[in-house]
Amino acid sequence: MGRMVLVVYRPKPGCEQELAALIRTHVFRLRTLNLATDRPSLAMTATNGDIVEAFEWVSAEAMAKAHEHPAVLEMWAEFEQVCSYQPLKELDQADDLFAEFTPLEVEG
User: Fold this and answer.
1) Contact partners, residue 87, CB within 8 Å, separation at least 6
2) DSSP letters of 29-68?
3) Domains of the chain by range and CATH?
4) Whether the Cβ atoms of residue 7 and residue 84 lie closer than 8 Å to each other
5) Is the pLDDT reported for residue 107 higher than 80?
6) pLDDT over 60 (residue 108)
């Protein structure tokens, strides 16, 4: 069964465009490795500039496999150059009953 996840990326100063470019290829790259489903991913920008991404892993096993896959580890190293990961509670909108974000186009 698929596993939906939300991830919060905080761009490093001056790296906003590089992070957005990586996010646009992120799930596609996971799909080529049979780790993410074909469900469309979503990305959105929070008021503080953090980017939230929602996507579906194929399974919990696929998530675990990703932590050992060389191509995924290489991709995650690219992300670490331009951002840090944050917990959802760090979002400005975390306390909002209906949190609003600005869409970021990721699917082509």
Assistant:
1) 8
2) HHHHTT-B-SSPPEEEE-TTS-EEEEEEES-HHHHHHHTT
3) 3-104 (3.30.70.100)
4) no
5) no
6) no
Round to whole Å and give the CA distance between 30 and 36: 5
Selection from 10, 4, 6 nearest residue 79 by Cα: 10
Q: How confident is the model at residue 60, as a pLDDT?
A: 96
Average pLDDT of the segment spanning 24-39: 97
Measured distance CA(79)–CA(92) in Å, rounded: 22
**What pLDDT band is residue 98 in, cutting at 50, 70 and 90?**
very high
58 — phi, psi (to 5°)?
-60, -40
What is the identity of the amino acid at 45?
T
Question: What is the Cα 30 distance to its own chain's centre?
Answer: 11
Mean confidence (pLDDT) of the chain: 95
